[in-house]
Amino acid sequence: MAPLLRMLVAQTLAELRIRKRIPAFSLTNLVLPVLFFTFFGLPFARDTFPNGVSVGAYLLASFAAYAVGSVMVYGFGIGVATERGMKVDLLMRATPLPPGIAIAAKVLNALSFSLLSVVVLIVYGIIVGGVRQDLTVWLNVTLRLLAGSLPFVALGFAIGYSAGPNAAPALANLIYLPLSFASGLFMPLDRLPGFVRRIAPYLPSYHYGQLAWSAVGAPSEPLVTSLAWLAGYTALFMALTIRAYRREESLKFA
Amino acid sequence: MNAHTSPAVEFVDARKRYGEVEALRGISLAIQPREVVAMLGPNGAGKTTSISLMLGLRQPTGGQVRLFGLPPNDRHARSRAGVMLQESGTTAVLTVRELVALFCTYYPSPMPADQAVAMAGLTDKADARIGTLSGGQRQRLYFALAICGNPDILFLDEPTVGMDVEARRAFVASTQSLADAGKTVVFTTHYLREAEELARRIIVIDHGRVIADATPRELMAKVAGKRVSFTVPRPLAADALAGLPLTALDMSDRRVRFLTNEPEAVLRALFERGVGIQDLEVAGADLEEAFLSLTRRPEPA
Lengths: 254, 301
Prior knowledge:
The complex is a heterodimer. Chain A is mainly alpha-helical. Chain A has one domain. Helices cover 76% and strands 0% of the residues of chain A. Chain A has eleven helices and no strands. Chain A has helices at 4-20, 23-41, 55-85, 88-93, 99-127, 135-147, 150-162, 167-182, 194-199, 204-215, 223-252. By secondary structure, chain B is α/β, with parallel strands linked by helices. Chain B has two domains: 9-221, Rossmann fold (3-Layer(aba) Sandwich); 224-295, 2-Layer Sandwich (Alpha-Beta Plaits). Chain B has ten helices and 13 strands. Chain B has helices at 47-55, 75-78, 96-104, 113-119, 135-147, 165-180, 192-198, 216-222, 263-272, 287-295; strands spanning 9-18, 21-31, 36-40, 62-67, 81-84, 153-157, 184-189, 201-206, 209-214, 226-231, 247-252, 255-260, 278-284. Chain B has a six-stranded mixed beta sheet with strand order 5-6-7-3-8-9, with helices on both faces. Chain B has a four-stranded antiparallel beta sheet with strand order 11-12-10-13, with helices on one face. In chain B, strands 2-1-4 form a three-stranded antiparallel beta sheet, covered by helices on one side. In chain B, β11 and β12 form a beta hairpin. In chain B, α3 packs across α4 and α4 (113-119) crosses α5. Chain B is elongated, with a radius of gyration of 23 Å. The interface between A and B is medium-sized, with 24 and 33 residues.
């Protein structure tokens, strides 16, 4: 049999190449967080909260969380739904490529693209917004967000296996935008209406944001709490994915 | 079971049911290494279901299917199989060469990507994005993907659909050379001519059953080759055609239709019986009709 590592490398490179060649998709993912930071963050980038935390750093961390989550939710949601619509999965199933390798390649591709997206955003914040933090802080923000992105990977797959290629973008927007907004990723929670503040602590993106906020020194819940919530949501979204996958399996491949 | 002595493909009373529909009603057959087999049958006969079972894309609801003595979805078995499916898709933004090279990495001893592209007759399109290919070119791409892994067995489901005459000829030549090189080839087709040209064995499937399994020559002898139709001045008596070598008789109103291998003998007999014949037409039966004559053949005594 062909070596798995060689398959994984080739598959990941092909996925990256595919992403690069659909600029409408990849550019959106790169540009939107920068644009949002420009609107919502830039005016206050040089301010500090009463507790001494830089507003700019806090908002950069928030939009970095938004950026990574959106790469995962939109990337897998739309990507998987499109591939199902074009019946790419049918041919792939007949090859010796193990499904695990195909998925791992997609995740690696999304992680590297997330990294690019976060770096672009932070560099923009530093240069244009004049936000100053130690490099280790940015490194910490980036690593935490990449490592904690699993629930959004799972959410993306759940959307991709549930929705058709036309419905997937709308569904992803409908789920991910309100989630991000209500979790304080667009503007700090204390600026949001009271009922939103009460809902936020139950949302995955809120606990995901905590990973980034604590990295820039903002007051936040204990790391264990965030991880527990994120693990719970990962399990939930994976269960939804498996259910949708099985339903499709029983229709197309029983 | 030893994978080296097993048949390439083995069906043991394989059954497949989709809800209420019985797609395969108990098929038993073995395809030996180096055989070139055509699976022939009308739409909905169970050809694609059979191929799906051979590939492990679907699971039988009864009986067993083996690929080189292994479950068909086993990676060892799959690493020896190349596949061309109906209705499958692929990314549009990679080039032909890029996708073929990617598929090469799935197999233990692939051929160079450029060789597969050349054998599929796509060399001038090697650097074109897949999204720009025509239907026939896309079909050639799928052929390149099927052969690039240097498989021991090739499964081709309706491989020539959408190909023009030239592409079909190139495809037949490539498949022939793969067969000559000792590959096992299993393909489905609607075209009797294509089956005759390539296969040394034709398995005819209808309504989920094997209704014939023979060499092309044997099969042609069994299949009624001509469709005869004519109009009679007044409706015929029920026994007017009794004892004549014909099948699939249809007498609606004053138009009479049937299939036969001996149109001259039948017509001579009809003239002798004094049947008035107008608007006579004799034409080669198409495959659908040929199947009809197979399925409606009286059981040999």
